[in-house]
């Protein structure tokens, strides 16, 4: 079965298989071709790691730490350049158009690579313009409501929304984000209608969910978990394939009847299209090695990121699968960027 057939027949199962296979690859050695095509690359020349977000977020923090480790492995400096804006597409556009010589990389996430391209006109092809290098990790989310909200289950929330169409609101970190897409997917699967309230970032969205200015949101686990554990938020479901060890009593979206609702925000590394294969393979090897570092594993745990790794092909397949999934959600919901 080819990738396109698998995606169309069972996108949720295919996505889980892609991430599972990538994670398994992290545990074993990778074959790496010699770098004859690039001579003595990187030859001590500085490599730029572009992050398409402001400093401080998990993509930036984890990316900096991975960049530092691959720089040490390659014997050169890897500097991080934050090129934020337009939901991550400004940084992505920059990398898409630079010389494909292995000296510029994109440390990004699912948004610019699989969601935003279906919401706005871009100057580049979000798949053809890049060479996938490696998955860094994934971040699950949870559907949370304020402690004083009456909803105890996802079914309660959906029933209330159907009884009061357009009255209940959900927060997100902004238009076109993975947090918005999950709310839209919930509407499409249940027929309930909610009001989407976009914020300038996940933090203010979570703050207003805590203040019960909105009824619910899909929040990154690391951000919401302390509030769930303190009783300020109630978790109705998680978007991962399995229940979380930290909240074993909270069901998955699949367990409450949602189809193909395994949604995890992935972080990954891409290079410009036509970057030499030997360079991509060497970068993939060094990134996979970095992800085994105990200090990096501990940092990822604090950020709520599950490190994955794997081959460049596994990243490419994952990007295509998620791009197809969210393209359909956006089209079916007539979702606009504004």
Would you give an account of this structure?
The chain is an alpha/beta fold and 338 residues long. The protein is built from twelve helices and ten strands. Strands 1, 2, 3, 4, 5, 6, 7, 8, 9 and 10 form a ten-stranded mixed sheet that branches.
In brief:
This protein has 338 residues and is an alpha/beta fold. The chain is built from twelve helices and ten strands.
Secondary structure class reads: alpha/beta
Assigned CATH architecture of the largest domain? 3-Layer(aba) Sandwich
Number of domains: 2
Strand content bin: 15-25%
Secondary structure tally, helices: 12
Mean pLDDT: 90
Between the first and last Cα atoms, what is the distance in angstroms? Answer: 38 Å
Strand segment count: 10
Helical residue percent?
A: 40-55%
Within CATH, the superfamily of the largest domain carries the name Bordetella uptake gene, domain 1
Poorly predicted sequence stretches spanning 5 or more consecutive residues: 1-11, 27-38
The major β-sheet equals:
10 strands, mixed
């Amino acid at each position: 079965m080819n990738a396109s057939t698998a995606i169309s027949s069972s996108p949720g199962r295919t996505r889980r298989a892609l991430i599972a296979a990538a994670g398994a690859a992290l545990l074993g050695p990778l074959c790496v071709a010699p770098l004859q095509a690039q001579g003595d690359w990187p030859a001590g020349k500085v490599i730029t790691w572009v992050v398409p977000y402001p400093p401080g977020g998990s993509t930036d923090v984890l990316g900096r730490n991975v960049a530092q480790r691959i720089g040490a492995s390659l014997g050169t400096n890897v500097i991080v350049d934050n090129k934020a804006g337009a939901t991550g597409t400004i940084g992505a556009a920059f990398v898409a158009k630079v010389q494909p010589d292995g000296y510029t990389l994109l440390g990004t996430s699912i948004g610019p690579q699989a969601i935003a391209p279906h919401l706005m006109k871009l100057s580049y092809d979000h798949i053809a313009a890049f060479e996938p290098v490696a998955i860094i990790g994934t971040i699950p989310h949870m559907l949370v409501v304020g402690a004083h909200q009456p909803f105890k289950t996802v079914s309660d929330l959906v029933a209330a929304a159907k009884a009061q169409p357009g009255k209940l609101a959900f927060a997100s970190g902004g238009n076109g984000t993975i947090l918005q897409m999950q709310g839209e997917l919930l509407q499409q699967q249940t027929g309930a209608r909610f009001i989407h309230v976009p914020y300038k970032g996940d933090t203010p969205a979570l703050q207003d969910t805590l203040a019960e200015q909105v009824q619910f949101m899909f929040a990154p686990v690391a951000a919401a978990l302390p509030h769930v554990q303190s009783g300020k938020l109630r978790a109705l479901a998680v978007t991962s394939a399995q229940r979380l060890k930290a909240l074993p009593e909270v069901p998955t979206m699949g367990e409450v009847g949602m189809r193909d609702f395994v949604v995890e925000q992935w972080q990954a590394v891409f290079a410009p299209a036509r970057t030499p294969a030997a360079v991509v393979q060497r970068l993939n090897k060094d990134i996979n090695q970095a992800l085994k570092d105990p200090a990096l594993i501990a940092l990822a745990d604090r950020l709520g990121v599950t490190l994955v790794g794997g081959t460049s092909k596994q990243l490419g397949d994952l990007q295509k699968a998620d791009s197809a999934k969210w393209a359909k959600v956006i089209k079916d919901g007539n979702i606009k960027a504004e």
